[in-house]
Amino acid sequence: MFSGPPPSDYFAIFGIEKKLALDVEDLQRRFYANSREWHPDRHARAGGEQLASAEAASATLNDAWRVLRDPVARAEYVLKGEGFDIGEQRGRDVPPELLEEIFELNIALEEARDGNAAAKAEVARALAKFEGLLGVLDSQRDRIFIEYDAAADREILASLRTLLNRRKYLQNLVRAARAALV
Amino acid sequence: MSLFQIDFGNEDKPHKVVGIDLGTTNSLVAFMDLTAPKVIPGTDGSPLVPSVVSIPEHGEPIVGALAVKRLITHPDRTIYSVKRLMGRGVSDVQDELKLFPFQIAAGSESVIQLSLGGKRFTPSGISAHVLRQLKRNAEAYLGEPVDHAVITVPAYFNDAQRQATKDAGRIAGIQVMRLVNEPTAAALAYGLDKRENGIVAVYDLGGGTFDISILKLHDGIFEVLATNGDTHLGGDDFDNLLLRVALEDVAAEWGMDLSGDQVAVQTLRRAVIDAKHQLSTLAVTTIAFHYQGRSYRRELTRDSLEKLIAPIVNRTLGPCRECMADAGVTPEEIDEVVLVGGSTRIPMVRQAVRALFKAEPHTELNPDEVVALGAAVQAGILSGHVHDKLLLDVTPLSLGIETMGGVISKLVHRNSTIPATASETFTTAIDGQRNVLIHVVQGEREMVRDCRSLARFDLKDIDPLPAGMAKIEVRFLIDANGILNVTAKDLRTGKEQTVEVKPSYGLSDEQVEAMILESFAKAEEDFNERQVREARVEADRILNAVDKAKGDDVYMELSDEERALVDNSIAELLLAYHGENHHLILDKLEALNKATMKLAEMMMNTAVRSALKGTKIDA
User: Fold this and answer.
1) Distance, C-alpha B568 to centroid of its chain
2) B468 vs chain A: nearest CA distance in angstroms?
3) What's the CATH code, domain B235-312?
4) Closest Cα of chain B to A23: distance in Å?
5) Residue B208 CB neighbours (<10 A)
6) CATH class of the domain defined by A10-69
């Protein structure tokens, strides 16, 4: 049965070690198992204090599941826990080697919004390229995850933060490009 | 006599929890019977109670099928589709009001008040009448008081609409154990969890609302991945469209505009609804309308109906696509599609669903009953009768607070599993400030003006300190019902901080309490009265039987003491009979039963002997 509040550390809630590379299927099994014990519906008859603490425990569990199942949210959680500022860095998030292409994409986006067909085609081309880049960043990210799990080094986390910020920047561009093509 | 067993009821039994589908058009109540959920029929034998309430000039409100008849005879006193008004202010429902014959009272900004025969009614109050009828049906059927229920709501209902539903339950004297989202309830009823790891889409098009939910099923766990919908889209819209066209047509043919005549409008409304229903199975039908000695007949084909409703059906597809994107699934990954709600009987709706999800939808369960059945399963989960299932639902709308310049800072994102929580620390802006006002909104847009105001929370009695020194941590918790709860703590002192809640829409706690008080005494009396009446019927039966038995020869074979005991028991039962305590009546009834046990046996033996001899005896 349910006893007391769960740990506040998201990894500890699932009874696993802090790791960046996670087996999400295993995490899901643990989430379901904990839900079966903690969910308020399991404590409806008891009511009162027990129901209230089950509700709080369940809410924390749900939050932990939401964060840890997603690689980006998980990485940000670990970065934050290690004292990194995970806010956006504006100009510094722009991948330098892509500056020129991003500039051109932004112009094409403007024109595409005005209904320019040639610009739309250009947006579509850029979109394909940037989507490919996102995939590359994701596999780089997964490599960094494994590296950090092997040797918990702050330098590795710093490179992870840079990568995540670039990814976020590209993701926003991709989203804008998709919206312009609809 | 000892010929029947009487169930005395057991005061210690756990509360029976029923499942209620409080629909726009029809409502139902169901319960968990041994292993499977079962709908409960009303006095007319049908489990469907039309969500229609008529308020006669004198006497009690009329609910259900009888009220439907009064839609035509008393359109100014009969309310339907009130679910569309739940948790809304008058500015939300301008379009609806053009079609509803109801009068809206002044001061309906945060809660709509219907003005009817000089009295005011809130949507929660009207819904409470429907709930009370369902409660009565359940009590008559189950033979015990029913005051705990699970009530379903559209998945896309916001906080105010959920709260209004919960209020309706409280006003009806029902403790609402849980609000469950309708599509999720339907998934529970279908019991599709038997398959390992399936993805299920539930498409729910009811009378007034549309929901789409995508769930992941795993070994009894029903995890909602995403939900979407439109609380202003349903079969009513088809009816209104047909009605408008028919009114124009009648006007052209008869040369008179009937749109101001409520009796005519409701009669024609009935006629177009009948035609709509028929076109679910026929290719062509006739709208037949008779009024004041004149007749109007117009052929309507399924094709022309489909042309008319296509734009509305298409409006359901956007939310479906968005829902799949949010759930991170493609149509190919969806294993099962379930159809819920009366409007999914329309062939065009089925076709649209089939085309979008590329799957043949499930229609085995009655789309009108499936939600109530699921609510009963959830009631079973809450009361501990169902152990192997668990629902993990989500909040349909993001929750945020207003920051500088009317911009929203999001605290809980839509499709987060509930219960969900978020904390935020607030401080004061000027020296000595005692209050901090927090404005909470629901919605997906960036600016406050584009979202829906949920409530204002006033953090009161903050210790006077220099600006920025006070630190108040506010905890927002969306509970398993999808309703927001807010608590606050002074981080400096660790003390609980007072929070005054001012809901933007809906009834205040005091208003609900007042409505409960008004109705509670009455409801309690109702149930007791019914119990007494039923006990008296039983007593009449046994008294008649004993009376007859006393004329039998074998009666004189009893000893004087035995006969005296029978007479005493009769006297005591008669005394209880004229009282108002049904427990006492049943007690005395049982005593008389015991006192006449021997007599009954002797008569039975005589009867058997006579029968063996071939002698005919009178019963």
Assistant:
1) 49
2) 23
3) 3.90.640.10
4) 17
5) 27
6) mainly alpha
